[in-house]
Amino acid sequence: EKGGYDYFMLKEIAEQPKAVADTLLGRIDGSGALHLDEVRIAPSVLREVDKVVVVACGTAYHAGMIAKYAIEHWTRLPCETELASEFRYRDPILDQRTLVIAISQSGETMDTLMALRHAREQGAKVLAICNTNGSTIPRESDAVLYTHAGPEVAVASTKAFLTQLVACYLVALYLGQTRGTKWGDEIRTVVRQLSEVPGHVERVLETMEPVRALARSLAHKNTVLFLGRHVGYPVALEGALKLKELAYMHAEGFAAGELKHGPIALIEDDLPVVVVVPSPRGRSVLHEKIVSNIQEIRARGARTIVIAEEGDEAVVPYADHLIWIPAAPTLLQPLVATVPLQVFACELATARGNEVDQPRNLAKSVTVE
Ligand code: M6R
């Protein structure tokens, strides 16, 4: 049942190109238009929405953080993303014009379920993004967009995360399409770029041997830090979460701009720091800033592990290890940039003799608060 792989996690990482393609399937047509008729919230209701709130836990929360950038960009609606366990104890301000998006692989996470119940009591409309047919969260929501990752067995989420991202992009574009804020060429272009993602992920997977070798060489380390900006920041958090749960290492993700506000004090000689670099063809200011962040930490002794777009020569002089990823637009980059981090964490866990599919103290679905 592991399809020849040693662990479910390895199988699920390898299934990602198909999971992404399956989640796009039937939702975009040949002309690049979106068809999300399954989201049964009336277009008139979606046009009235004045705020979006995304709630989720763990890896799904990281997908939700990325959704915020996409929703704000493509719809110009204010969007907040919040940990479900914080949201429900905060008396959040919600009404009939709030769209709440609850993201959950299992559809059974208690904190996310309680958050959506609370939101519906306040009159908000809830759209679930879920991987498990007929589970509680979609049953209790106004509408659901299923991710088609197939069953995810390993406790550490991989393919579900990538498909959650795809679903978030689709929802953001669909909201833009329905509300008329963005339509036509831009949506068609993004839809075409999304359909190229399975091929990109396939290519990333083919080039992972150096990442595995690097992971093995770091098996004795205690700490690994992760830095990112913009959508690279949630990717950094996700890379750190994978490493915590699988390798039981101290791993922390930071917004690179926060370095000077504290975390840079952690940098010491030979400390591995993974940096997620945005596309140099996107917002150039983002790219320039992160290149100077890499210089700053390297000057203080960090061992820099740089994830950058193929051909990004500007990072080469400051990278102790380079992990190239195919070119993707800035907002979509998490779909390719996350994959090496999954492989990295899985290999480190193996090298440290940990149980990959069943990390200690964790359960696949967290049905208690
Ligand atoms: O089933 P859910 O997506 O609601 O689960 C949320 C988290 O418990 C889950 O993503 C957890 O963080 C994973 N073990 C991360 O790999």
From TrEMBL:
Enzyme Commission number(s) of this protein: 2.6.1.16
Any coiled-coil regions, as ranges: none
Residue ranges constituting the SIS domain according to the UniProt record: 41-181, 214-359
Subcellular location: Cytoplasm
Keyword field: Aminotransferase, Cytoplasm, Glutamine amidotransferase, Repeat, Transferase
Catalytic activity: D-fructose 6-phosphate + L-glutamine = D-glucosamine 6-phosphate + L-glutamate
Active site, UniProt feature: 364
Lineage: superkingdom: Bacteria
Gene Ontology terms, MF aspect: glutamine-fructose-6-phosphate transaminase (isomerizing) activity
Cleavable signal peptide: none
Main location (coarse class): cytoplasm
Biological role stated in the UniProt entry: Catalyzes the first step in hexosamine metabolism, converting fructose-6P into glucosamine-6P using glutamine as a nitrogen source.
Assembly information from the UniProt record: Homodimer.
Protein name (Swiss-Prot/TrEMBL): Glutamine--fructose-6-phosphate aminotransferase [isomerizing]
Gene name for this UniProt entry: glmS
Coverage span on the entire protein: 247 to 615 of 615
